[in-house]
Amino acid sequence: xxxxxxxxxxxxxxxxxxxxxxxxxxxxxxxxxxxxxxxxxxxxxxxxxxxxxxxxxxxxxxxxxxxxxxxxxxxxxxxxxxxxxxxxxxxxxxxxxxxxxxxxxxxxxxxxxxxxxxxxxxxxxxxxxxxxxxxxxxxxxxxxxxxxxxxxxxxxxxxxxxxxxxxxxxxxxxxxxxxxxxxxxxxxxxxxxxxxxxxxxxxxxxxxxxxxxxxxxxxxxxxxxxxxxxxxxxxxxxxxxxxxxxxxxxxxxxxxxxxxxxxxxxxxxxxxxxxxxxxxxxxxxxx
Amino acid sequence: xxxxxxxxxxxxxxxxxxxxxxxxxxxxxxxxxxxxxxxxxxxxxxxxxxxxxxxxxxxxxxxxxxxxxxxxxxxxxxxxxxxxxxxxxxxxxxxxxxxxxxxxxxxxxxxxxxxxxxxxxxxxxxxxxxxxxxxxxxxxxxxxxxxxxxxxxxxxxxxxxxxxxxxxxxxxxxxxxxxxxxxxxxxxxxxxxxxxxxxxxxxxxxxxxxxxxxxxxxxxxxxxxxxxxxxxxxxxxxxxxxxxxxxxxxxxxxxxxxxxxxxx
Lengths: 287, 264
Prior knowledge:
The structure holds 2 protein chains of 2 kinds.
Chain A: H1 2-39, E1 43-44, E2 50-51, H2 57-62, H3 65-96, H4 101-116, H5 119-129, H6 136-142, H7 156-180, H8 185-192, H9 200-225, H10 229-234, H11 242-252, H12 256-286
Antiparallel strand pairs in A: 1-2
Helix pairs in contact in A: 3-7, 3-9, 4-7, 5-7, 7-9, 8-9, 9-12, 11-12
Chain B: H1 3-28, H2 45-52, H3 54-88, H4 91-101, H5 108-122, H6 128-138, H7 141-152, H8 156-164, H9 169-198, H10 201-207, H11 214-223, H12 229-251, H13 254-257
């Protein structure tokens, strides 16, 4: 009896701390999302933030052709950049893990810096590099390769470069331990059995990693879906994504309910993708 | 990807990653009032401006204050969640841990809009405290995962031995748990501070019109006509970020921390 008493006392503090942490996350992470869903059903009011009367209006406006179009083109540009990111990061990691530990560390620090660096800075530096007065167009003009050099941004390509730069570091860092720690005996066996060495990555390594890569592409898609700075800085208005619309509605036009409704649609897309991604990784662990 | 082909590929990637920053560095030390590269004349005036004009100094101070306090919040929360998970390992503590992974699984704009609506309702819209708390909560995922690795390195026999020797839970925590996980806590702290220092979207939507942090100031400058001082501010960012990461790399085994197999 004495010992159970002592156990109960010693578990009291951790239990209290556990409830405290859970409560904090609920109030400051979950409840804002819930409140956002509520606001998406409020009536817009240009004079205040919103009127607390229930309406389907915001979702009706969303399903008008304009916002649906924005959604479709957002899905397209985000999907394209996510696929490019994963392809580049996977091939780069296959090469990086073959380097010496010193050079691996160099790359990891480089990638970590890229991951931490503000999208504002990354976007700005690409803006300069693609500009008429300071970047690649000027260089090509000076070399006589381009008669009439003009700025390469804003454009769809510039926005893509920005998005890919952002995602590349994150995916590389996630892939690093998996690629570095992979079982190389299968590749070895394939080579011994006569597979040409340059085809081994394609025929052996890629299939092994396929499910990881698909799950990562989905995760990357969700991440790039919410990027604001790159489309605004490097893309043309007709490339602007849902994220830009949400921010413009909420901050620019002061139409918070419509912004919230757009965000809820994005939340649903995200949830669906996360569930699919989870199913993929489940299958992987089961296999 | 062995041999020359792989190395060449990496060289191209390296160039693409680094090139924009070389150009920005060039612009930041140029004398001309417009953005131009390569610079025809060199000057330190843009750096002088960055470190002497009150509006830039204020933005830097705000960013630093937010970054450091948000990092304290995030690391404390990550410690509490991991400690309770380690001690109790109940369904409830596992749920709390999973909840902490949430912010990194959602597009940042959703978090930003949710937080902005939430703080407006609470009445803290536009206050620096709101930015600090939201950064602390939304960036908790990284220290949560890193500190979890620290707790995973705690072996049962050490803990059992201490308990048999009669150590109280508090003593066990301060003499065994804390020293072992301190490197992980520090790494988490530095990473959150850097991420918060660089974060634009959430800070802007919660209180950007009053609390103008450095990324917000740079963005506003770029969007509405800009001068090379933005380039020097960007280089300041790059320097701070890389220095902080190099310090982390010096004090911990970064590769192992990221989960790479140790060379034996």
